[in-house]
């Protein structure tokens, strides 16, 4: 059935948009994730992607034209489908793209962590006092249906400037900073720290100080949009001791807010460490897990100390954690983060819906080791073995496109573009940033991109669009000494490659036993899309590229 795609609201202040460029034309095939058009908003020019598959049957707003939000932008459906009823104003399912866009900012547009504040329903908006803005739980990824507030960085009564970080929100992909597009006073918090709520639930209300917003919150909640909102009065009546503890842990000596990850705060609390004594190594001075783990009070200089007692107190180690004596039962319960819940859900769905099988091949790494050493002699060049594997995979996928496929109930989608996801371990779980059009990248470009994406993934600075659209995945545990393992397919991909450690061992060459370096590769395949022979042929090609790196330059 044909789907109507409407002009999306790409910012909270956007009322109309201009189609700068159409990247598809009527009759073109559309895949999920394809970029349909570039749309100019009141804030930036952004790429607008499709959540739907089919044929582009109609374009409602031509390039250069401006139209209000929710105007008919396009119609996507089956080739040859009759859409006359839709064009005449008939009903059709409105694409989720209209209200939940997956927009990717261009180089000149803000590309921070999905800084999106969703607007309140039209009915509520008409009843808002002047200057008051309702902020709802944003959709920070295309697969996000609910979010968890990990940390509030503002409290009721605080002044909020445009661009200030309101809260850290756990999505199904990462914990992300959520910034404000509005200025005013934080009048109301609808979702408390640690609480989970669906997308579009009432998150906060911002407006002029002293504005009465009780009716707004009640009306919004009674409409079913918000869940378990907390009144501002509850925040104001918190015990004084709790406020004091919070100030000690989360504010600096000059009263400024200390930025720290939720895990860093928890570890600091367990160890009795005051955050204002710790220097953060993350972006903007954010304190992360490693800062707390590596912190010792003795390392803090005390030039201003007046007495020997003060110096001795400063160098005293943190109180050791009490452990249960041997022989006694001891358990600890750790609340599942939103990321961990989604990881569990997705991997279980993948393992129990896709019939997995694994193919293993051993690869000689002698030539690759020599080639890497030579490549890295070039100034400002740093290529890892994993980069070489990724490049080899990209080239092998072009020769074996069935590996680069997706299963649908009525068809198999063959992707002729290569977007390789690289599994990266972070403190809360696992994320998979994506190298777009990997086959067109050089080894040095792959190396630089992987380092950049992995670094930002560990600092929770990846945007959702950087973790979407993979067609194949590589997971490497070789740096941990793991020689061989099997991975679960990262759906909707049809395969994932597991890369083990390089091992020095006796091998047979030309009838002689010599010392050689080998590496095990394991390919997990979805048997619905990839037959055993097809997977084996892919691994043979991959082996040829890795064992003769010069062939990757041809």
TrEMBL record:
Pfam families recorded: 2-oxoacid_dh, Biotin_lipoyl, E3_binding
Indicate the enzyme's highest-level EC class. Answer: transferase
Entry keyword annotation includes Transferase: yes
Name the coenzymes or cofactors required.
Answer: (R)-lipoate
> Region Disordered: what ranges?
89-109, 224-257
Enzyme Commission no: 2.3.1.-
Asked whether the UniProt record includes Protein transport among its keywords, one would answer no
**Gene Ontology molecular function:** acyltransferase activity
Q: Per the record, where are the segments of Low complexity compositional bias?
A: 89-98, 224-249
Per UniProt, residues of the Peripheral subunit-binding (PSBD) domain are 259-296
Q: Which GO terms describe its cellular component?
A: pyruvate dehydrogenase complex
- Domain Lipoyl-binding, residue spans: 2-77, 132-207
**Which keywords does this chain's UniProt record carry?**
Acyltransferase, Lipoyl, Pyruvate, Transferase
> Which processes are annotated in GO (biological process)?
pyruvate decarboxylation to acetyl-CoA
- Identify its protein family: Belongs to the 2-oxoacid dehydrogenase family.
Explain the purpose of this protein.
The pyruvate dehydrogenase complex catalyzes the overall conversion of pyruvate to acetyl-CoA and CO(2). It contains multiple copies of three enzymatic components: pyruvate dehydrogenase (E1), dihydrolipoamide acetyltransferase (E2) and lipoamide dehydrogenase (E3).
Name of the protein = Dihydrolipoamide acetyltransferase component of pyruvate dehydrogenase complex
Name the species this protein comes from: Flavobacterium johnsoniae (Cytophaga johnsonae)
């Amino acid at each position: 059935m044909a789907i109507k795609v409407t002009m999306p609201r790409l910012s909270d202040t956007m009322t109309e948009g201009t189609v700068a460029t159409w990247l598809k034309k009527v009759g073109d095939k559309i895949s999920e994730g394809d970029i349909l058009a570039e749309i100019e908003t009141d804030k930036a020019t952004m790429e607008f992607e499709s959540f739907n598959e089919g044929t582009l049957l109609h374009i409602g707003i031509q390039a250069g034209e401006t139209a209000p939000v929710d105007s008919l932008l396009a119609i996507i459906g089956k080739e040859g489908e009759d859409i006359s009823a839709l064009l005449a104003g008939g009903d059709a399912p409105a694409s989720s793209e209209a209200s939940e866009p997956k927009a990717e900012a261009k180089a000149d547009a803000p590309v921070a962590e999905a800084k999106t504040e969703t607007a309140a329903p039209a009915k509520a908006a008409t009843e808002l006092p002047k200057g008051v803005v309702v902020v709802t739980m944003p959709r920070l990824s295309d697969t996000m249906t609910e979010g968890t507030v990990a940390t509030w960085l503002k409290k009721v009564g605080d002044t909020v400037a445009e661009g200030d970080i309101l809260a850290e929100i756990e999505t199904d992909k990462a914990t992300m900073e959520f910034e404000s597009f509005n200025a005013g006073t934080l009048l109301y918090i609808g979702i408390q720290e640690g609480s989970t709520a669906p997308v579009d639930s009432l998150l906060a209300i911002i407006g002029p100080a002293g504005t009465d917003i009780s009716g707004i919150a009640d009306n919004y909640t009674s409409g079913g949009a918000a869940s378990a909102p907390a009144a501002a009065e509850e925040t104001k009546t918190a015990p004084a001791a709790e406020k004091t503890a919070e100030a000690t842990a989360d504010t600096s000596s000059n009263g400024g807010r200390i930025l720290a990850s939720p895990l860093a705060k928890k570890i600091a609390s367990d160890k009795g460490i005051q955050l204002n004594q710790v220097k953060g190594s993350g972006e903007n001075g954010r304190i992360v897990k490693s800062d707390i783990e590596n912190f010792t009070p003795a390392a803090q200089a005390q030039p201003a100390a007046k007495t020997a007692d003060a110096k001795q107190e400063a160098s005293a180690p943190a109180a050791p954690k009490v452990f249960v004596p041997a022989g006694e039962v001891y358990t600890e319960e750790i609340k599942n983060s939103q990321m961990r819940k989604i990881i569990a859900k997705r991997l279980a769905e993948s393992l129990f819906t896709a019939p997995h099988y694994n193919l293993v091949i051993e690869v000689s790494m002698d030539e690759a080791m020599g080639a890497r050493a030579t490549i890295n002699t070039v100034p400002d060049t740093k290529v890892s073995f994993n980069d070489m594997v990724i490049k080899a995979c990209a080239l092998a996928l072009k020769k074996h496109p069935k590996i680069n496929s997706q299963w649908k109930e009525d068809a198999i989608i063959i992707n002729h573009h290569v977007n390789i996801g690289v599994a990266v371990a972070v403190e809360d779980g696992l994320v998979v940033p994506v190298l777009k059009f990997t086959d067109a990248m050089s080894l040095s470009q792959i190396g630089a991109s992987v380092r950049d994406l992995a670094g930002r993934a560990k600092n929770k600075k990846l945007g959702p669009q950087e973790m979407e659209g993979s067609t194949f995945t590589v997971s490497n545990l070789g740096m941990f000494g793991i020689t061989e393992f099997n991975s679960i397919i990262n759906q909707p991909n049809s395969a994932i490659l597991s890369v083990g450690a390089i091992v020095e061992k006796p091998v047979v060459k030309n009838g002689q036993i010599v010392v050689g370096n080998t590496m095990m590769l394991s390919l997990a395949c979805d048997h619905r899309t990839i037959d055993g022979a097809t997977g084996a042929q892919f691994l043979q090609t991959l082996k040829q590229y890795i064992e003769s790196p010069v062939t990757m330059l041809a």
